[in-house]
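WARN retry 2 of 3 for item q-0093 after timeout on previous attempt; input resubmitted unchanged.
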Amino acid sequence: MSMASFEPVAAVLLIPIVSAALLAVLPGYRLTARLNVVASLLTFVSALSLFVIERPQPGPYVLVDDLNIVFIVLNTFVGFTTSIFSASYIAHELETGRLTPVYLRFYHAMYQTMMFGMNLAFVSNNIGLMWVAVEIATLTTVLMVGIYRTHAALEAAWKYFILGSVGIALALFGTILVYMAARPIVGEGQDGMIWTLLVQHAAAFDPALLNVAFIFLFLGYGTKVGLAPLHAWLPDAHAEGPTPISAVLSGLLLNVALYALLRFKILLAVNPHAIAPGPLMVTMGLVSLIFAAFMLYRRRDIKRLFAYSSIEHMGIIVFAFGMGGPLANFAGLLHMVMHSLTKSAIFYAVGHISQIKGTQRINRIRGLTVTHPALGWGFVVGVVAIAGLPPLGIFMSEFLIVSSTFARQPLLAIALVFGLLLAFGALTLRLTSVAFGEPRGSTVSAEASYVPMFAHLALVLGAGIYLPAPLVVWFQHVARLLG
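OK item q-0093 returned
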């Protein structure tokens, strides 16, 4: 491995962890908020440089391939835009006294530690290390969800911690079983954990062990993805934590768990006698989609509403990857990227809205397009995008998923469309009440930067109209890798 090719990978991991240590000790809000943004920007730039340089050879710990580079770049980009949003959001929280300077230091340090955990999960070639990294990312978000120290926030953090621990324990058990399946073929020691080696030899593994392992991994990482019926932590964690964390949870942390699942799905696909992971993923995906779509109608809290919308979209993505094949995988990847960008943009809007109105209750927020045109219309575009209307990016990916399913399994496609329409109805219902009508609640101007929100929405709109050819070729290649 040459030094030149190793440096960006090292930077993606070292910048967050070094800046986390700095942010833990530095006083002063302005300085730390700026440092947080700069660190996130540098991490994003190092991730981008992975496209340009020759990639490092897969080692015992680090792997950069076509699949995870998509995730790394998306992760560091949303991490960067969220740090900009976070700067103006947290300033307001300090003024109103919901956060104290001590908690703030803790918040910034945890933010970078979480970015480190997520990046580590993406680049790790060792399935044990990947598990540890997902655990780091989970524990840091647990601590951040409970940062307001209110009764509801602590309850949400505990719920998340307990369910997350159960999930991560199941995933650990699954990881151990994969190692046990690999041991007779690959030999003792670390080799049984290296993903690139596992894929080479997976065809010879004991299928029974692999099957049990995948069920455990699917339930374990599926808890983190927020699939119904393992989703119970997700709405609470989104509603009670600081809004930047909601954006990161929805946009990024769910992807980390999804990525872990995809890695093991590739492993199973290599073994001809193991169960096909497809039907299991399709079933759980559809259940999550339809369940979340019904739940959207009953929500009173605006952040909970979009938490359920995340469950719905993760259902769609897992469904697409479960269907498999070049087109469905392509659509799943595209949907994942579009969902990350759109959902974080919506949470940026929701963060500013709830700060202005001083509430997250939907019935107390009315007429946003009248009182705060930029924010109101940004929010409208975000919700229209997440509901899957053309010409925005999510329409493209949903259209591809539905059409490829119709060609192969018409009955499944009917269930899929039913779920999509249900969710669409709920979102438009809520959108009209919040954005239009007689203004209600406070009309103070928002001291905030709308740049991150509009940057994300512009990307989603652009992708809906035109996907650059290199990007399409790239996604097609990754879709083939996924089998």
